[in-house]
Amino acid sequence: MSDHLHPPRKQSTRPERAQDMRPKPDYSPRFPGAGRLTGKVALITGGDGGIGRAVAVAMAREGADIAIVYLNDHRDAEETVRLVETEDRNAIHIAGDVGQEAICRNAVNEVVKTFGRLDILVNAAAEQHEVVDFTALSAERLEEAFRTNVFGCFFMTRAALQHLPRGGAIINTTSIMQYRGGACEGYPTMTDDAATRGAVVAFTRSLSTLLIERGIRVNAVAPGPVQTPLTQPGAEQAGCAPMGRPGQPNEVAACHVFLASDEASYMTGQVLHPNGGGIVAL
């Protein structure tokens, strides 16, 4: 099922579609499922590729039905649905720009209409703009980054909260940029991305406190360099990780699954750091 809720804008910052990447990132869950998310429904933004796709497949293996929201890579979205279905779970894909509030409301409504419930929200959609000269970073590009990376989290969360039950979980995706300020070797040109990721961490911590009484946990994951269509880290970026290599999406997705499950029932307002060994400050 695919619903075009809004004419998708063209995002020039995506270097490749997931289907075109060579070598292909590893999206497959690394271990058998244990039913940790049986009976749950998860909505994942940015689920057409990268970390979002790996999260979708990993949660499906743990028993969840999946809905993904994506911008405009229809073939990639269909591949994510296919991978979820190989895990014997149901999946839908919904096209739209999460930076538009109406898109987020309609997407959540479609999920609830299709599956009858919503238990888990994963905000993984993101964009970034590499600008060598900071003074050349236009207001338009800056607004685009915040609209997708920050406003998208706000809009989707606000829509989802009408349906998330006690025991529900929200997992936001931030980045090592928030902690390194974009200054890690190989990443000196991502000032806008660092700013948006910092906002996501602050949003996560504040919202977690607000939702404690409702029994909804809010956490985040801050990956280091990961092989995805958005980032495609090269040798310099991979060098930021003490392990000396970029991570694979399935190595990050395990964090999202854990935070969505009852295993993380005593965790809220926290950030996990699958970054290849980088020590970060709070």
UniProtKB/TrEMBL annotation:
Transmembrane segments: none
Gene3D superfamilies per the UniProt record, alphabetical: NAD(P)-binding Rossmann-like Domain
Biased composition (Basic and acidic residues): 13-27
InterPro entries per record: NAD(P)-bd_dom_sf (IPR036291), SDR_fam (IPR002347)
SUPFAM superfamilies documented for this protein: NAD(P)-binding Rossmann-fold domains (SSF51735)
Keywords: Oxidoreductase
Superkingdom of the source species: Bacteria
One Pfam match: adh_short_C2
Annotated region described as Disordered, given as residue ranges: 1-32
Record has Oxidoreductase as a keyword: yes
PANTHER family per UniProt: NADPH-DEPENDENT ALDEHYDE REDUCTASE 1, CHLOROPLASTIC, NADPH-DEPENDENT ALDEHYDE REDUCTASE-LIKE PROTEIN, CHLOROPLASTIC-RELATED
Family of this protein: Belongs to the short-chain dehydrogenases/reductases (SDR) family.
Protein name as catalogued: SDR family oxidoreductase
Organism for this UniProt entry: Tistrella arctica
